[in-house]
Structure to design on (610 residues):
């Protein structure tokens, strides 16, 4: 009974982490190659489909799994063979268990391989501490990696999973579909919204900046800074390199401003009062500006 | 160009034909090679806008601070900026030589699209007239955006969404990717006028209205623009040149040179209207023109003109 109660509490708390919960329909957009972007299930989902089956990068919330499954079935009659979690948040991992079951088509009882950086598994499986819950074990990755990257081939395409340390969290991954030339980057890049730097889960401003610069290292525009490598963000619209540049400039400039104010001995409240994000608030959601500044202030120059 | 109309139907057969082609009589053809006059904002379009010149633009505080923090080194240090095109709401005001051609549905003989090719960044654009919807919010944005057009009499009204972030003015005043641009294409014989209305909830206090004129130039040959990015100023990767708030040393140059009150150079909707001239009573133009003195056309702009 106590175990059941723990699981219920864990599920409830886990469900409120991450971004706001979605409602409504799933939007499906063909990106290029055999990669699609699914929107409306919490975090964005990328699906690669082909003769070998379906690979999804992120699974959205558990609540939206039926709608996501219905959308995937229109793209392929095959089962989900691979799941890659770009981070631990429930709006990216909530469908890890439900979605493959609802899509179906696999051997009875078979689970897809669920890839994530090892810190995702470590945090999901850790005993509850404070407000950070233990996730139900059905959601846990079963194919975690601990090195800088992991690669494999699926549907005849090279898939490269890159770990970007200490950015949004300490368990972030980016997924590069090399032939399709699509990069799925999770919550390290959220156009139109300040990045959520989850300090309690190991995120930091320098890791965030390093991560967006890593995106720019991988992307190659087709012509005149447009198209070429497409970038599927954790939330928001489909992007390419030029869009990431705007975001990289913003996080770097805000970091520079906060560092300058902090170096003058200003407290966090004084830095917030100086409004170092005021020229970005109309574009990146003013309500989140203070939280972003606080995360920058607390993690500047290696501080935690 | 005046639209022609049939005075009346002579026979039932002619009536049927007239009904069948009726929309075409309200459609003006913009096809041709068009050369810009460059008489609008000549300095800005030739040598380029001066740092700190935010005049004539209804920008908000966010846009102003964005431009204030801009360090021009950014264009050299960040390779990604070097081949960054202009969007149509600004590109038609830069090297705006443009070719326009139309696409006709062979089944209906209706114009279903106009295409443009602009000298600046070899930019190509399609304006759909076939009634298709704009893409969903989550689709990719492009430099030229997604454009649809409808006829309003002889004028073509073009609505563009899905633009990438770009410039209101290329001294770093930004226009956001949430802007919606409405254009009115109007042809008067061999003169083409496009009135552009930019609505931007991120960076504008009120819509920005500009008009640009071209003349038909059948002999025009638009060359290849071309662009290749390369490191121009080596800096550590990830460097984003910027001025901290209040530390840009160049912001007063424009006001000082032209003898303008600094506040008058800062833009904002108030500065667009005649009443604002009351605040400029002490304005005295420079005693001697020393730069951009003959800026009647892009090739005539010069510095230190006698």
């Amino acid at each position: 009974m106590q175990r059941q109660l723990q699981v219920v509490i864990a599920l409830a708390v886990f469900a409120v982490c991450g971004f706001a919960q979605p409602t409504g329909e799933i939007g499906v957009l063909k990106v290029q190659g055999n990669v699609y972007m699914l929107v409306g299930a919490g975090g964005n989902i990328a699906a690669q489909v082909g003769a070998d089956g379906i690979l999804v990068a992120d699974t959205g919330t558990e609540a939206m799994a039926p709608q996501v499954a219905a959308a995937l079935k229109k793209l392929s009659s095959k089962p989900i063979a691979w799941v890659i979690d770009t981070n631990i948040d429930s709006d990216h991992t909530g469908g890890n268990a439900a979605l493959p079951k609802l899509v179906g088509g696999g051997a009875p009882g078979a689970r897809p391989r669920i890839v994530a950086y090892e810190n995702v598994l470590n945090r999901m499986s850790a005993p509850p501490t404070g407000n950070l819950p233990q996730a139900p074990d059905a959601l846990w990755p079963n194919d975690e990696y601990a090195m800088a990257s992991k690669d494999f081939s699926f549907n005849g395409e090279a898939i490269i999973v890159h770990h970007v340390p200490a950015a949004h969290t300490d368990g972030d991954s980016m997924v590069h579909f090399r032939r399709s030339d699509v990069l799925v980057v999770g919550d390290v890049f959220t156009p139109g919204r300040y990045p959520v730097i989850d300090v309690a889960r190991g995120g930091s401003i320098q890791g965030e900046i390093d991560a967006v610069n890593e995106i720019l290292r991988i992307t190659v525009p087709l012509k005149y800074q447009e198209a070429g490598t497409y970038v599927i963000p954790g939330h928001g619209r489909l992007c390419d390199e030029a869009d990431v540049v705007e975001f990289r400039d913003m996080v770097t400039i805000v970091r520079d401003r906060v560092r300058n104010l902090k170096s003058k001995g200003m407290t966090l409240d004084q830095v917030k009062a100086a409004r170092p994000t005021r020229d970005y608030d109309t574009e990146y959601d003013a309500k989140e500006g203070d939280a972003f500044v606080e995360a920058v202030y607390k993690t500047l120059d290696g501080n935690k | 160009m005046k639209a022609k109309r049939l005075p009346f139907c002579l026979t039932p057969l002619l009536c049927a034909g007239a009904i069948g082609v009726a929309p075409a009589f309200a459609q003006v053809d913009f096809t041709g090679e068009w050369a810009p006059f460059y008489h609008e904002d000549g300095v800005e379009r030739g040598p380029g806008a001066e740092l700190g010149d935010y005049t004539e633009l209804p920008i908000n505080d966010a846009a102003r601070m964005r431009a204030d923090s801009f360090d021009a080194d950014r264009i050299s240090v960040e390779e990604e900026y070097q081949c960054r095109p202009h969007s149509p709401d600004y590109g038609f005001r830069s090297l705006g030589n443009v070719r326009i051609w139309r696409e006709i549905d062979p089944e209906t003989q209706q114009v279903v699209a106009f295409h443009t090719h602009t000298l600046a960044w070899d930019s190509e654009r399609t304006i759909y007239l076939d009634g298709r919807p704009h893409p969903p919010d989550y689709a990719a944005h492009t430099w030229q955006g997604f454009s649809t057009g409808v006829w309003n009499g002889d004028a073509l009204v073009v609505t563009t969404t899905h633009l990438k972030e770009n410039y209101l003015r290329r001294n770093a005043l930004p226009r956001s990717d949430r802007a919606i641009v409405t254009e009115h294409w109007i042809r008067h014989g061999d003169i083409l006028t496009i009135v552009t209305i930019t609505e931007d909830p991120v960076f504008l206090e009120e819509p920005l209205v500009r008009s640009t004129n071209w003349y038909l130039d059948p002999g025009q040959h638009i060359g290849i623009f071309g662009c290749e990015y390369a490191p121009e100023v080596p800096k550590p990767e990830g460097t984003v040149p910027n001025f901290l708030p209040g530390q840009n040393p160049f912001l007063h140059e424009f006001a000082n040179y032209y003898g303008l009150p600094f506040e008058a150079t800062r833009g904002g909707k108030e500065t667009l209207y005649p009443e604002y001239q009351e605040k400029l009573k002490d304005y005295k133009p420079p005693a001697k023109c020393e730069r951009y003195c003959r800026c009647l056309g892009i090739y005539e702009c010069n510095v230190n003109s006698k």
Summary: The longest strand of chain B covers residues 180-188. Confidence is low (pLDDT under 50) at residues 1-25 of chain B. The radius of gyration of chain B is 22 Å.
